[in-house]
Amino acid sequence: MTTLALDDPAPLFYLAAITAPLLMPFVAAPLAFALAVRAYTRTWGRAWYAPDPAPCVLTVLLASAVAFGAYGYGVGRGFYLLDPDQMCAAMGVDGDSIVTDMALPVSARCVTDNGVATELVPFWVNPLILMSLALCPVAATAGVVAWRRRGEGVRGPDAASAGGGGADRPDS
């Protein structure tokens, strides 16, 4: 009987990647709801202001959850407990072996003896991962800028009605 060694992170990562598509909706849905509520309650029509740091943090968390869920979905397409020919048959394609790449771009191909390969990972997985990963540093940078600007006295929608940058207000 083999036991799971805690000093080797690879099995834990694979387990997390396989369960990520199942758990991602439970993380992404509340984050998306919180972002939608913040967007709905925002005052429109005022002068431009730096966003609050909170929506930026929510956006980073949402993009990370979507990226990891899509990555897990892509990796799970090549993960098999059956023989490779049974896995390819379960997916409905011809193939005698499976070639997988778990790095970006995620790929799992059923390969026949003739060298003909059929991709098992859907076309939308890799662009979704890359777009979500690209959104993370953009939202994090916006959050840092918002946090720093709030420290300088720029206060969002009430700053326009306070006669400028909001520095005249006693609570800034």
Oligomer: single chain
Any low-confidence stretches, pLDDT <50, length ≥5? 162-172
Give the ordered list of helices and strands. Answer: HHHEEEHH
Tally of helical runs: 5
Helix content: 55-70%
**Computed CA radius of gyration, to the nearest angstrom:** 23 Å
Strand content: 5-15%
Mean of all residue-level pLDDT scores: 76
Taking the sheet with the most strands, its summary is: 3 strands, antiparallel
List how many beta strands DSSP finds.
3
How widely separated are the two ends? 64 Å
Strand order of the largest sheet: 1-2-3
> Structural class, judged by helices and strands?
mainly alpha
Q: Which overall shape is indicated by the principal axes computed on the Cα atoms?
A: elongated
Topology:
Blueprint: H1 9-40, H2 53-78, H3 84-91, E1 97-101, E2 107-111, E3 117-119, H4 125-151, H5 157-161
Antiparallel strand pairs: 1-2, 2-3
Offer a quick outline of the entry.
The chain has 172 residues and is mainly alpha-helical. 57% of the residues lie in helices and 8% in strands.
Description of the structure:
With 172 residues, the chain is mainly alpha-helical. It is built from 5 helices and 3 strands, in the order H-H-H-E-E-E-H-H. It has helices spanning 9-40, 53-78, 84-91, 125-151, 157-161, and strands at residues 97-101, 107-111, 117-119. The chain has a 3-stranded antiparallel beta sheet. It is elongated. The model is unreliable at 162-172 (pLDDT under 50).
